[in-house]
Amino acid sequence: MSAFVLTAAWVANKRVRGAAVALRGLSRTEWYRKVKRVGADQAVFDVTIQKPLGLKMEVFPQRAGVGISEIVKDGNTDKVNQEVILNETEGMWVLEGDRVMAVNGEDTDDCGIEEVVELIMAAGDSVTLTLMRNTRKGPIRVIYLPENLQATVRRGARLSSAAEAAIGRELKYGCIDGWCGTCWHRERTTNGIFKPCCDVLTGDWDNVMPLVITPKPEKAGDSTYLNPRGA
Question: pLDDT tens across 121-160, in order?
Fold first, then answer.
């Protein structure tokens, strides 16, 4: 496997999970039914989380609103995410960058972070957050099976950056740019082919779905899905 350098500074959450992972994979339609679309690239949805929520919120630096800045490892939000993403339970999951639109049905669109926190503190044992996600410009949650390693990565990052962020170390590949086919992976929902060493996470991916990939190496030299150098 050829060494490459981790160029993205957006290292996110790394996870190692032992829970059983559903093998079927939800379809695009099943994921999309979990949200309400607003315009071309916004999705709104509710997530109910037990307190303490296990997440951090901040005011967006360059736009209005309060957003999710961090999901605490093994906190209650993280546990909801694991159930929805890995075990494919009902409901939706939380992603860094989601905007808090309401708390238990009370509109927070024009609220500051103190007001949002007060609403959460005043709630009972659980809180229902109404969140809005930018589905084409927001970050992407990448899951590597079977180890259940995870990372949240910005658009424009190489898939290799997500892999290294998730595993916590540099990875190596057996060729310079992936055309040999030995490092290809398949995405669980779309069955698409990805090359971790050079594919870039673009606006084409709708981040209502996590990008869940599992190793599916082809025969070395098989260029069925690729355009190798010199072709």
Answer: 999 999 999 999 999 999 999 998 888 888 999 999 988 8
Domain boundary among 100, 134, 168: 134
Which of these, 71, 70, 67, lies nearest to 111 by C-alpha position? Answer: 67
**pLDDT tens per residue across span 203-229:** 999 999 999 988 876 665 555 555 544
Q: Are residue 194 and residue 224 in the same domain, yes or no?
A: yes
Residues 142 and 227 in one domain: yes
Instruction: Provide the pLDDT confidence category of residue 22 given band limits of 50, 70 and 90.
Output: very low
CA distance 144 to 164: 11
DSSP states of 105-125: TEE-TT--HHHHHHHHHHS-S
pLDDT confidence tier of residue 15, bands split at 50, 70 and 90: very low
Structure tokens at 210: 């996590």
Position 114, amino acid: E
Phi-psi region of 221 (alpha: psi -120 to 50; beta: other; left: phi over 0): left
| Closest to 197 measured CA to CA, from 220, 170, 222, 218 | 170
Q: Evaluate the CA torsion angle 205, 133, 53, 47 in order and state its sign.
A: negative
Residues in the chain: 231
Q: How far apart are CA 160 and CA 202, in angstroms?
A: 14
With respect to residue 27, please indicate whether it lies within any of the assigned structural domains: no
